[in-house]
Design a protein that fits this description.
The protein has 896 residues and is α/β, with parallel strands linked by helices. 36% of the residues lie in helices and 24% in strands. The strands form six sheets. The protein has an eight-stranded mixed β-sheet, sandwiched between helices. Strands 11-12-10-9-13-14-15 form a seven-stranded mixed β-sheet, with helices on both faces.
Length: 896
């Protein structure tokens, strides 16, 4: 449990006011800085920290934390602008699972979250070291530190003893703790983005002499948008640019600025960023492309050193249309319409297309950020900004890579409860990704994994930008359909049939209308109308009749949505009827069901028709309208389900599991497969149901084990095992239904003849009850972390089918969704439906998820056969592989 045993690199995180601090382990060379921290404490804070006012105590503490680390001791520093502003440490005593903690924060940094941030990182380190409890001694009048402990989000018990308080903190990070961390992270992220997205002053650096240069274009757009703050330019060769005062260098600026837009060559970016940091700039937009690895590392190091938030490099800029900001710090050709959609992209070209599309629809944009190569500010940051900006009601993201997918999933899941979150997922790799992104850990992942991420988070993933805009239009303008039942109305029978087919292809239901409703419609419509579904109102329908028909359908309880398909006819023109007006002017105050239009003669793919109480989306093609309606219905279903919870699971021995893993990796430092006995023991630690089994290395021991497990006439199975054999060893590695000593001996000999020296023994277990066979397990992904898998399994599944996937940790809702996936439900609800213990399967998946969360060394856990019978679930043929690396906690607060 030393920093030498588990080397930790420095990391950076945000304080409550948005400033950046570095967090890292102490080093011997930090001694003077730590002494300086203690020497600067007021006499009162010194008393509260050491129960006395002696300065000697601070020097002794510095000796301890900066000296040779002993087993069971860790110390972390917080540094702001290179100065030590906080120290947290723990040290174990006779009980290696309990450690006493101490916390020190500089006087001028109280109430900025330094202590809480250090404790969060200390909790993470303690979890790696197998520590389950923190203890702390504090004076009863040390209210600030007692509040820090109480607000941390962990179970804390306090015992008062005279003037002292003894605190016991249970290190069991649960949903409550994660929610508390989320809250703090959201506050800090939003504060840090103010300088980027809501600046009071901006400097454009590198305006150039050419009228069409990038820097000059940004400056012109800022003036055109009417930016209300202080605007400056930096150019060594001009006194003013676009009537904006110009200064020869960043250092020459008369006032500090919040945001600097760098329109300088790649070779000058890092040096210019350094000048900005020295001058007190808080955020950067870097427009340059083509930074090499060294230049990129320099830029990021400067941003971390000075606490600069960074959009880019390879950014096209940022926009905020709200009053009084009115900022357009981009080089886009057209002005963005103010509105309520937040947009974040990596590709500038896609950003321009989205800005144009949302402006054309009239939805408009609240804030826009082009993240480029995404060195710093991420999709997670933007979601947190939109969540609290008081203006955004639609979040649109186009990300080519994920820096922290599990963190994104958690944030998006929360934000999607408040507003629709849309993205584009083409279903394949991204060959055009930037080299910077391609060279990072943000590698391409399978489409099924990305889809699992989006499904869990409630993110609406479309296949194209056009489809995204189609979905945005209906989500912005119409109530969500409570289900998938659609009525199609058309003045052309052929067009109505085409639209009904498109609805069914999109997963919607075009149901037969109730007889009473059909009769009502026929009373409203002209002769020759048909009131089945699709409803044919005929080419002779009047504006009033069509309006009455749509109004009646749009309030009927059997329907969830109405799609109206219109073609121009000479009859309506002759009577002066405007059939489109029938959609936009309702006789009711507001239609309670979703209404969409398909205007087959419309030149635009999608537009919004202004209507009573809102707008009606009008599409030029039925399939586009049907897909958009299907996305809206999916969001309605997602919102209708309560958020999932991670239930308490009994009979879990986390400490025992950690001990088993540590013992294995001590003997096998490179990792590897657990032997059958260790595999069974680890599964037992998590209460994963398995039949009793025994290992035998010969005929006699196999026969004795069979009698011991089932009696002389019981039915058993023998499975060959060995270092080179996977569990089950394929069809040839398992012999079933063996009865009596003679059959068991013969079976052992047969397996030995098949596998020879590769087989070192057999596993003997009782035959389990018949049931549905699936496979389940855990797979560690380099980017997404542990994935929970479930699908068809058993020896009958050949070749193996692709399993359904969800990201850990699973909620109860996620576990149910896994089992509802067609790859599982086709078995569970097929001809054997009703014979499987569904609750038992759900609990097994939740236990696998808990194991994956607890053990970052778990590279793979495969239950090749899970038998789900009427009375229970049994896992067979388990395989577990461990690796020595420790992955980062995806929920720990830190910058990329």
């Amino acid at each position: 449990m030393t920093d030498t045993a588990h080397p930790v690199q420095e990391t950076h995180a945000l304080l409550a006011d948005g400033r950046t601090v570095e967090i890292r382990p102490t080093r011997p060379e930090d001694h003077a800085a730590v002494v300086w921290l203690f020497d600067r404490l007021s006499a009162e804070n010194l008393r509260l920290r050491f129960f006395g006012a002696s300065r000697r105590a601070g020097r002794q503490a510095a000796d301890r934390v900066c000296g040779s680390h002993t087993p069971g001791h860790r110390a972390l520093l917080a540094l702001l602008a290179g100065q030590v502003v906080g120290l947290a440490e723990y040290e174990t005593g006779t009980d290696p699972c309990s450690a006493e903690i101490a916390l020190t924060v500089a006087d001028d940094l109280h109430h900025q979250g330094v202590g809480t941030l250090l404790l969060e990182h200390l909790v993470d380190r303690a979890g790696q070291d197998g520590i389950t409890t923190f203890t702390a001694e504090a004076l009863a009048d040390n209210h600030p530190v007692l509040k820090v402990f109480a607000d941390l989000g962990l179970n804390t018990v306090r015992h008062f003893d005279g003037t002292a308080v003894h605190c016991v903190i249970r290190l069991e990070p649960d949903e409550y703790y994660r929610a508390a961390v989320d809250n703090r992270g959201r506050t800090a992220a939003s504060a840090s983005l103010r300088a980027l997205l809501r600046p009071g002053s901006i400097a454009v650096i590198g305006t150039d002499h050419e009228p069409g240069s990038v820097g000059r274009t940004v400056l012109k757009n800022l003036r055109r948008a009417g930016f209300r703050g202080r605007l400056r330019a930096v150019d060594a060769h001009a006194h003013s640019v676009e009537r904006i005062p110009c200064y020869p260098s960043v250092a020459a600026l008369p006032h500090p600025v919040d945001l600097a837009v760098l329109a300088v060559p790649a070779s000058d970016v890092a040096a210019t960023a350094e000048q900005c940091g020295v001058a007190g700039v808080r955020a950067l937009v870097v427009l340059a492309t083509g930074l090499d690895a060294e230049q990129s590392a320099e830029l990021l190091a400067v941003c971390r050193r000075y606490g600069l938030r960074l959009a880019g490099p390879n950014s096209m800029g940022v926009t905020n249309t709200e009053e009084p900001v009115r900022m357009d710090a981009t080089f886009a050709a057209h002005r963005t319409l103010p509105g309520t959609a937040g947009v974040g992209v990596q590709s500038g070209g896609i950003g321009i297309a989205l800005l144009a599309g949302l402006s054309r629809l009239g939805i408009g944009v609240s804030t826009f950020a082009s993240l480029g190569d995404k060195y710093d500010v991420s999709g997670n940051d933007l979601l947190q900004w939109w969540e609290g900006d008081g203006r955004t009601d639609l979040a649109v993201l186009h990300l080519e890579s994920f820096g922290n997918p599990r963190g994104f999933s958690r944030t998006a899941r929360r934000v999607a409860r408040r507003m629709p979150v849309l993205t584009v997922d083409t279903g394949g790799p991204h060959p055009g990704r930037s080299s910077a992104a391609a060279g990072s850990a943000d590698h391409d992942v399978p489409a099924t994994t990305r889809q699992a991420l989006f499904t869990q988070a409630g993110v609406i993933a479309t296949r194209t930008l056009g489809e995204l805009l189609d979905a945005a239009a209906i989500l912005h303008s119409q109530p969500l359909p409570p289900g998938t039942n659609v009525a199609v109305v058309s003045n052309s029978r052929g067009a109505g049939i085409m639209a009904a087919d498109a609805c069914q292809a999109a997963g919607l239901t075009v149901l037969d209308l109730p007889a009473t409703l059909a009769a009502e419609l026929l009373d409203l419509l002209p002769r020759g109308a048909q009131a089945d579904n699709p409803v044919n109102v005929t080419a002779a329908v009047s504006e009033a009749a069509l309006r009455a028909c749509v109004d009646r359908l749009a309030v009927h309880g059997a329907l969830d949505a109405v799609m109206v398909v219109l073609v121009p006819t000479a009859l309506s023109e002759a009577t002066g009827d405007d059939l489109v007006r029938a959609l936009t002017q309702s006789t009711t105050t507001r239609r309670s069901r979703t209404v969409t239009a398909v205007l087959l003669d419309q030149p635009e793919p999608i537009r919004l028709l202004h209507a009573t109480g809102g707008a009606v989306p009008a599409y030029s093609a039925p399939h586009a309208a049907a897909r958009a309606l299907a996305h809206a219905a999916a969001r309605g279903r997602w919102l209708a389900q309560p958020p999932g919870t991670m239930p308490e699971l009994p009979d879990i021995d986390t400490a025992g599991a950690h001990a088993l893993v540590d013992a294995f990796l001590t003997v096998n430092p490179q990792g590897g497969l657990l032997d059958p006995e260790a595999c069974s023991e680890l599964l037992d630690r998590y209460g994963i149901p398995r039949p009793p089994e025994a290992r035998a290395d010969g005929e006699q021991s196999a026969a004795e084990a069979a009698v011991r497990l089932t009696g002389p006439r019981g039915h058993v199975a023998l499975t060959a095992y060995g270092p080179g054999l996977p569990p089950g060893s394929g069809h040839d590695g398992v012999l079933l239904g063996l009865v009596g000593e003679t059959e068991v001996r013969a079976a052992y000999r047969e397996l030995k003849s098949r596998f020879g020296d590769a087989m070192t023994g057999v596993l003997v277990r009782p035959m389990v009850e018949r049931g549905i066979e699936l496979t389940a397990g855990v797979k560690q992904d380099d980017v997404f972390g542990p994935l929970i898998l479930c699908g068809p399994g058993g020896i009958a599944c050949d070749p193996p089918a692709e399993p359904a996937t969800r990201l850990a940790p699973l909620t109860e809702r996620d576990a149910r969704a896994l089992l509802a996936d067609p790859r599982c439900s086709s078995l569970l609800l097929g001809r054997h439906g009703g014979s499987a213990d569904i609750e038992g399967l759900k609990t097994l998946l939740l236990r696998l998820s808990r194991m994956a969360e607890d053990l970052p060394q778990l590279a793979e856990a495969a239950l090749d056969t899970v038998v789900a019978g009427p009375s229970g679930v049994t896992a067979l043929d388990a395989r577990i592989r461990l690796l020595p690396h420790r992955v980062h906690d995806p929920y720990l607060r830190r910058l990329r």
